[in-house]
Amino acid sequence: MESKYLDFIKEIVPNRKTPLVHVMNKSTTYLGTICFYPAWRKFVFNPESDIVFDTSCLSDIIAEINELQHEWKESLKNELKR
């Protein structure tokens, strides 16, 4: 997803079923991580402490989470078809 203010950097971690997505602003300040939370079976955003967001940034983070969630659900459907 393209964002005006944020960069989303996807990391594929060995032995992990879902990616980590590092969220940074355009001036490369680390803001937090989007990761899969197994108890809820959803992706969540885990922000660094003392970080402030406006609605535009939060909307972009939500859009990225929704995209990851959709990709994850599609991968489950594909596994069931095998």
Features:
33% helix, elongated, 32% strand, alpha+beta, 4 strands, 82 residues
Give a description of the structure.
- The protein is an alpha+beta fold.
- The protein has one domain.
- The protein has one helix at 55-81; strands spanning 6-11, 20-25, 30-37, 42-47.
- A hairpin with a 4-residue loop joins strand 2 (20-25) and strand 3 (30-37).
- The model has no long low-confidence stretch (mean pLDDT 94).
Average pLDDT: 94
- Tell me the structural class: alpha+beta
Q: Specify the number of helices.
A: 1
Beta-strand portion reads 25-35%
User: What is the straight-line distance between the termini?
Assistant: 29 Å
Radius of gyration: 14 Å
- Provide the low-confidence segments as ranges: none
Q: What is the total tally of β strands?
A: 4
| Percent range of helical residues | 25-40%
Total count of domains: 1
Silhouette? elongated
Short description:
This protein is 33% helix and 32% strand. It has 82 residues and is of the alpha+beta class. It has one domain.
Explain the layout of strands and helices.
Elements: E1 6-11, E2 20-25, E3 30-37, E4 42-47, H1 55-81
Antiparallel strand pairs: 1-2, 2-3, 3-4
